[in-house]
Amino acid sequence: MKHIPVLLKETIEGLHVRPNGIYVDATLGRAGHSSALLSLLSEGGHLYCFDQDADALEESKETLEKISSSFTLIHDNFENLEARLLGYGVRKVDGVMFDLGVSSAQFDDADRGFSYRFDARLDMRMNKDTSLTAETIVNTYDFADLAKMFYEYGEEPYAKRIASAIVTERQKKKISTTFELVDIIKRSLPARELNKKGHPAKRAFQALRIEVNDELGALKKGLRQACSLLNPGGRVALITFHSLEDRIVKNIFKELCDEGEGSRYFPVESKKASYQLVNRKPILPCAEEIQNNNRSHSAKLRIIERRDA
User: pLDDT category, 138, cuts 50, 70, 90?
Assistant: First the structure.
């Protein structure tokens, strides 16, 4: 399946790209956003591309080389953004973009174990060099931790029922594949849930994926680093795909924009916050984009700009 970058035009325009600027794509994927950004850079500009998936880096390298040589690929999680850039002598940047979640290529690769549509080993690792897999979690986490994970990361109303069923089933035999887990989830849910639109395992699989990759923890670390790395006038543009991510981004942006304003008890005179929102409400995909790319339907783009230091 051809990769279609989500909110491409809006993201690139939102970054307000300076041709000679230093930019970061924190989630390279298949280089959809990076290709567009790299094509806008002049000889003095440079793009640093992060991805924890070695396959994504390998596939994207050829794509980017056709556009320019002004890029550097970094095999790492964006939670290490600051340290890895410092290794290249980069202390400040003019923009950072994030496209969160699992790439289409990862979802469509049955062997990666991300999807409930294919029967595969329960893996879900974005970085195949790490050790924790979804299989390890479903077979070793206790009932309380499983229930908490499904409820907090999947917003699954039947979290306890699913956790209980997993614990019961794994006492008989190890749970090793996606379809085995899907069957357990389906048996845990009431008939009215199974008849609803959407796959019954969607929320539980999302929770597992977030836990395996520590997605929310990495987001909190990486986003704060990205904002602190910005030059005055630099921007962070970030696309989320579910409410848990969006809530974190919204809260961090609000916190940064409120700094310096004080409180009603301790007002701070004449000091402006270091950051400002570019769009007060998230930018959503238009109807045409959703029609052409169904995976964009839940996307939200938020952009923040650093003021003069």
Answer: very high
